[in-house]
Write a structure and sequence with these properties.
Elements (H helix, E strand, L loop, with lengths): L3 H14 L5 H13 L6 H4 L6 H15 L4 H5 L2 E3 L2 E3 L13 H7 L8 E5 L5 H9 L4 E6 L2 H13 L4 E5 L10 E6 L6 H4 L4 H6 L13 H10 L3 E10 L5 H10 L4 E6 L5 E7 L3
Parallel strand pairs: 3-4, 3-6, 4-5, 6-7
Antiparallel strand pairs: 1-2, 7-9, 8-9
Helix pairs in contact: 1-2, 1-4, 2-4
Bound molecules: S-adenosylmethionine.
The site of S-adenosylmethionine has 22 residues, from α7.
Length: 278
Amino acid sequence: MKNKQSLFLSKKKLLKEAGCDDYKESAKRMFSKAYGISLAQSYRYQTYEGSNENNSLFSEMVSRRAVGVPTSHIVCSRSFWKNEFYVDGTVLDPRPESELIIDVTKNLLFDGMRVLDLGCGSGCIGLSLYKENSNITLFLADFSKKALSLSKRNAKDLMVDCEFIHSDLFSNIRNKFDLIVTNLPYIAKDDFCFLQKEIILHEPHEALYGGQSGLDVIKVFLDGVYKHMNRNGIFVLEFGKGQDLSLKRELLRSNFNKISFYKDLNNVNRLACVKKDT
Ligand SMILES: C[S@@+](CC[C@H](N)C(=O)[O-])C[C@H]1O[C@@H](n2cnc3c(N)ncnc32)[C@H](O)[C@@H]1O
């Protein structure tokens, strides 16, 4: 029987040959999942002999990765901000760029603050905010029942106490909030075909597709958001590269004037923080 190290090295080579850009990291993550060990331990454990069961699980995972299944869907986990989130392809994988929302809002949180994460997906944004201040009152909403059930699972794993609302934007939301965070779909029709094949094949399109202009869903959000904001309320919205000027036009048209934009690590505007005019 092969020891784990030679199995690991041969599978890493296979992934490289299959064209996986992230073959090193991917092999390590699948290895640690298949053998039930932490990532930090994975190097040391490669030298021991593995059981047939663990070896076959690892080989099976590598075969799925080699045909393009994202590593996160194979190991059912993706890290975001300070935690790991369960993911399985039924919701969008949390993206590092969305951590900017946490960075910008974490210092605004106060005890008792009513926070809504609209279009919560895995729940990564709202749940991360709760972990920054567990005295907020958190609501997670999505129109996808699968997203709600997955975000419930993540809330339970992270021991977060919050409410879940099944709602198409604000259609089923009656309350007002001090902070609304949202990362709604914003990929324009013409840009959709330029997404990575892995994303098109393995991530839910309703989480990505923002209509003809990319801002179609966001425009409907803007129509409804004002009456759900408390006095001095704020909403924080992620958007796509190059959409800042059109978004600003839409915000001004909806009578929002207190707007700040935030740039991502590539120095591109990706986030709007909007205060209610009182
Ligand atoms: C880009 S994903 C973001 C998911 C998560 N918030 C994150 O940042 O990883 C957009 C989410 O919005 C949800 N969504 C799309 N249109 C919606 C609508 N009209 N009403 C409510 N949720 C919607 C999708 O189901 C998806 O979970």
